[in-house]
Design a protein that fits this description.
There is one protein chain. The chain is built from 14 helices and 13 strands. It has about 375 residues and is an alpha/beta fold. The chain has 2 domains: about 190 residues, Glycogen Phosphorylase B (Rossmann fold); about 150 residues, Glycogen Phosphorylase B (Rossmann fold). Helix 1 links the parallel strand 1 and strand 2. Pfam families: Glyco_trans_1_4 (PF13692), Glyco_transf_4 (PF13439). One of its GO terms (molecular function) is glycosyltransferase activity.
């Protein structure tokens, strides 16, 4: 395939999990010889600083997420410079557009107005995320509408792919894990043979991430006679107050620490670390392979992506406290062996290998061009 000029559309101006995935995608595209320009919501912030440092041109087009009210979003996009944006990108000789999310529509509409192929990279499970589920149309109807404006849909896991295919069976799809394995193996953490069970919760304190369940796991471990601690690493969100109150009521204040967002949280872990994923729905879970690469075992809810990365004994049914505690205890009994197993799982997972990921990206580009057809942006989508 000849070198392409690809416009990649971001939906965050800070380094969320999806933004990390976007950076990895840009790395794949550049490694394949393609030129990348970024469409982003703001011209400042940590993401914009990274674009500048990476030598990436970027354009700013700030629009609200479309997922909450798709019909209103379509009207707003049509009325806020779609033709001008299409002309500007056509002047840059953009060959293809990639949306890095399901929650936006304007990159897909932009590609349609320009008459170039469009790929969506889906990082969300809309059916299980109350915070993202559309309010004015059924979520599967929204996915089908976006699929109608896409020539191919990359999905961050098989779980996300299944949701997309259920909503739009005829859509071309493939799976691209959003994690990029490091060039050099991550150094294994130096973990003491003794010490408390160190539960590590990484993620914003939201209802989907389910931080209150993590406190319940800690309480249960303590009741069963274990020495255990719990560290939260993530931005305070809508669940922050409820979690703090729960910690106060449960009498485990001296065992819980709230660190906020920490870039290198692995340098601060206590005891024998076990990454606890409590999510009610998890499209992929970037922290899972990051931890596995460093030899940190993971216990996770079988909530989507984790089921594709972890062995059954490290999984538990969403909200099942007994299963979660049993999985933690199983790892804690042989933590050193579990740490070695985590690294082995990371290294053996084909979907995490950089070469395989680049082949998937290149195949998606070819598919998008082979399936490209003109699309009508003025149709009353979602009505």
């Amino acid at each position: 395939m000849d070198s392409l000029h690809i416009l990649v559309a971001a939906h965050h101006d800070w380094f969320s999990g999806a933004q990390v995935a976007l950076v990895n995608l840009i790395g794949h595209l550049r490694a394949l010889g393609h030129r990348v320009t970024v469409l982003c919501p703001r011209g400042e912030g940590s993401a914009a600083s990274w674009y500048e440092q990476a030598g990436l041109p970027f354009f700013v087009w700030d629009l609200p997420w479309a997922v909450h009210d798709p019909p209103a979003a379509v009207a707003a996009i049509e009325g806020t410079g779609l033709d001008q944006a299409a002309a500007a990108m056509a002047a840059q000789s953009v060959d293809l557009v990639i949306s890095n999310t399901l929650v936006q529509l304007h990159p897909a509409m932009l590609a349609a107005r320009m008459g170039v192929p469009h790929i969506t990279w889906a990082h969300e499970l809309l059916g299980g995320d109350a915070g993202l589920k559309p309010r004015t149309v059924p979520f599967d109807y929204y996915i089908a509408g976006l699929a109608s404006l896409s020539d191919h849909m990359l999905c961050c896991s098989q779980a996300v792919r299944a949701e997309v295919q259920a909503a739009s069976p005829a859509t071309s799809t493939s799976v691209l894990f959003p994690y990029m394995a490091p060039d050099l193996p991550a150094p294994a953490l130096e973990v003491p043979r003794e010490g408390p069970i160190g539960l590590v919760f990484v993620g914003d304190l939201t209802a989907r991430k389910n931080p209150r369940f993590a406190v319940q796991v800690l309480e249960a471990l303590c009741r069963r006679g274990h020495d255990a601690v719990l560290d939260f690493y993530g931005v305070p969100r809508d669940e922050s107050r409820a979690v703090a109150e729960q910690v106060e009521r449960s009498g485990v204040v001296d065992r819980v620490a709230f660190h906020g967002f920490v870039d290198r949280w692995r340098d601060r872990i206590r005891g024998r670390p076990i990454h606890l994923v409590a999510s009610t729905c998890e499209p992929f879970g970037l922290t899972l392979p990051e931890c596995m690469a460093a030899g940190v075992p993971v216990v996770a809810s079988a909530s989507g992506g984790p089921s594709e990365l972890l062995p059954a004994q490290w999984l538990y049914r969403v909200g099942d406290l007994d299963e979660a505690v049993h999985a933690v205890e199983t790892i804690a009994r042989s933590h050193e062996a579990s740490a070695r197993h985590a690294r082995s799982l990371h290294d053996r997972c084909t979907g995490l290998q950089r070469g395989v990921q680049q082949e998937t990206v290149q195949a998606a580009l070819r598919t998008a061009f082979s399936r490209f057809r003109p699309k009508e942006t003025t149709a009353l989508l979602f009505r």
